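Hello again,

I reread your note about wanting to compare the complex against the isolated chains. To keep things tidy I'm splitting this into two emails, and this first one only covers the full assembly. Below are the input lines as submitted, including protein chains and any nucleic acid or small-molecule components. They are followed by the predicted structure of everything together. The single-chain runs will come separately.
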Amino acid sequence: MSEFFSMNGHGAYVWSAYGITLAVLILNAWLARAKLLAALQRARELANQAEVPRKQPTVRRLQ
Amino acid sequence: MKLPRWFHQLGSPPYVYRLAERLCPWLGGLGILLLAVGGFWGLVIAPPDYQQGESARILYIHPQTAYIGMMAYVVMAVAAGVGYVWRLKIAHAVAVSAAPIGAWFTFCALFTGAVWGRPTWGTYWQWGDPRIMFEALLLFLFLGYLALRGAFDERDKADRVTAILAVVGVVNVPIVHYSVEWWNSLHQTSTLLSEGGPAMTTDMLIPFLIMFAAFTLTFYWLLLRRLQAEIVEREGDARWIRELVAEGAR
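Full-complex prediction:
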């Protein structure tokens, strides 16, 4: 098993390459999700504000 | 020329949002599955290279991440160009979404290349090497694009100005690709696209290609998730967004 991890002395190179790439993938998945959740949260706040009755438009609609 | 209906629908934010919502579980699920399969295959099952030994296992992530970085740039440049010419909001949203993902994958390509270079070339980094320099330029184009966006308060203005940078910078993509053929580089030429077919055995080629598919699916998964966020931010208090959040979207 330790032979597998040492990879004939190349372990540090191979495992750091795979490790960093995996970390970047996880980070990107988290960033994308966090961005979407934040955007939806802001939209929710905006929608709640909109429920407060606004001043009626002063220009009358065309019949 | 009459364009099909689905083509016009791709300009509609609610349509694209819902399409992304449907596609994401498949892209993400399949992408992660293939990453696991290809990663295990490359690290455990595939044989070591007869010259490079075990360090050759970086073959299953380095060209793939480099390819995704370049593809992300092309997606960004085409989307930005379409957004600029036809003033299509959704196209600008695609361009903005592709940039950070492309930057991260290009960083991965540079990092995996450096740790592969040490055991095979004897150095992590070689200043002046064409492939390394143009790949680094690709990273700086992504970062420059994002920094330039940050300099504008108005989103429309940012979209239009950064689109020019994105489109002009696309000339760098073929330069990165052909740099190993045009100039003398430490970097080898393509293993997959070499004359007379891929220059590797089948037991290496299979995980090599699986990882290409895996990273591609993962890229589009991330892109669509970011695009959804970008759409919600840009649409503000549009009626369909209000209905969406009232439905209890996550």
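For quick reference: Chain A touches chain B at residues 4, 7-8, 10-14, 16-18, 20-21, 24-25, 27-29, 31-33, 35-40, 42-44, 46-47, 50 (CB under 8 Å).

B.
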